[in-house]
Amino acid sequence: MGFLQMFIVAIFVITSIVLIFFILIQSGKGGSLGIMGGASNTPFGSSTVDVVEKITWWGILIFFILSIISAILFAVPRKVPVIDQNPSQTIPQPNPETENK
User: Domains in the chain: how many in total?
Assistant: First the structure.
């Protein structure tokens, strides 16, 4: 495996672990507190839930982009046989004079 492929795999694994973590700490839509607990509103105007949700969506985007890149990098090119432009060179033609003997 080349350096670029190993680098993409490493970033892919790190992104997957971080994405799993941020999905698990999110609170449900029913208002539950999630794994880490705590209130959803802060006095500074932005809630922790919004920040975690944005990080999760960015993680999902990075995950899908890395999936497409790794599919392209790990694709093995198939060897397609080349068809000759002149088929008479590859297929021997029968000689009528030799068949009669």
Answer: 1
pTM: 0.56
pLDDT in tens, 36-95: 555 445 554 556 678 888 889 999 999 999 999 888 888 877 666 666 555 555 566 677
How confident is the model at residue 21, as a pLDDT?
Answer: 92
Residue 40 lies in a domain: no
Kindly write down the DSSP assignment for every residue of 37-99, as one continuous string: ---S--TTS--HHHHHHHHHHHHHHHHHHHHHHHHHHTPPPP-PPPPPS-GGGTSPPPPHHHH
Location of structure tokens 């021997």: 92
Domain containing residue 63: 49-76
Contact 8, 67 (CB under 8 A): no
The answer to the question of residue 93 being in a domain is: no
